[in-house]
Amino acid sequence: MALLELQDVHTYYGAIHALRGISISVEDGEIVTLIGSNGAGKSTTLRTISGLLRPREGSISLDGKRIDQLRPHQIVELGICQSPEGRRVFARMTVHENLEMGAFSRRDGVAAIAADADRVYGLFPRLKERVGQKAGTLSGGEQQMLAIGRALMSAPRILLLDEPSMGLAPILVEQIFDIIKTINKQGTTVLLVEQNALMALAIANRGYILQTGEIVLTQDAASLRQNEAVRKAYLGED
How many CA atoms, within 13 angstroms, populate the side-chain half-sphere of residue 187? Predict the structure, then answer.
C-alpha cells in the first residue's frame, strides 16, 4: 500500500477542468517529481492534495485512509505539508516566528518543537544567522529556505514542494536540491513540483509527466532522463 495515493482525481476551477482523472502513488521514503509545462496541472495537484482545492471526482488516500474531504489544517495534522510556489512567508514576522507558525498544529510539546527548530537551523545555517530578522527583508533564496523550513516544522511525513528553485541563482538551486536530498535521507517523503526537470530527475526516484491535466507518462527517474521525447520536451536537449 502506497503512503499517498491519488486515484482518478478530477479537479475544477469553476467550469475549467484542471485535473482530468490523474492517478499518482508515492511510497514511503521516496522522492517523486511531477514534471510538465506551465498550466499542465502540477501546482493544482499539490493544492488538491493539501485540501486547498477539493476534487470533484476520485479519491486521495494517506495510508489507505481517505483524506480528500478533510480541511487543509486536518491534512497538515495527518502529516502532509506544503511549501508553496512563491514562498509566501509572513513578511512582517521574524524568521523564528515564521518557523513557530509552521508548528501551529502540533501537540507534542515545546521540547519536540524546539528540537525541530534546531534541525531547521542545522539544515539552513543562514536562517540561524537571521533568526530575529523580518522575513520580508530576506533575499529570495533565504525566503525559499524559510518556506521549506516552516513546512518542516509541522513534522510532515510527506513534504510537498512547489517550484523550490524558482527565481534562484544556479548556485542556490544546487544548495536547495542538496537540502531536499538531505531532508529525504532524514526520513521525510517528498513530492516535488519543479520546472527544472533535469535537477528534479537527478534526485527523484520516480517521475510523472503531466500535460493539460493528464498524466501521459510515468517511469523511474533514470528512464525518464533517457527518454528521447522527455529530453526534447523538458530537458532542453535536441
Answer: 5
Nearest to 201 by CA among 225, 176, 232, 228: 225
Query: Structural domain boundaries of the chain?
Result: 1-79+156-238, 89-155
Q: Whole-angstrom Cα distance, residue 95 to residue 99?
A: 6
User: Residues with Cβ < 8 Å from 29, sequence gap 6 or more?
Assistant: 184, 187, 189
- Which pLDDT tens digit goes with each residue over 21-57? 999 999 999 999 999 988 899 999 999 999 999 999 9
Greatest pairwise CA separation for the chain in angstroms: 54
- Could you tell me which residues come within 8 angstroms of residue 224 by beta carbon, excluding any fewer than 6 positions away? 35, 201, 207, 209, 217, 230
| Per-residue b or e along 24-51, where b marks 16 or more CB atoms closer than 10 Å to that residue's CB | bbbeeebbbbbbbeeebbbbbbbbbbbb
State the CATH architecture for 1-79+156-238.
3-Layer(aba) Sandwich (3.40)
155-181 residue pLDDT tens: 999 999 999 988 888 888 888 899 999
8 A C-beta contact, residue 39 and residue 232: no
Strand order through the sheet with 189-193: 80-83, 158-162, 189-193, 31-35, 206-211, 214-220
Number of other CB atoms surrounding residue 6 within 10 Å: 23
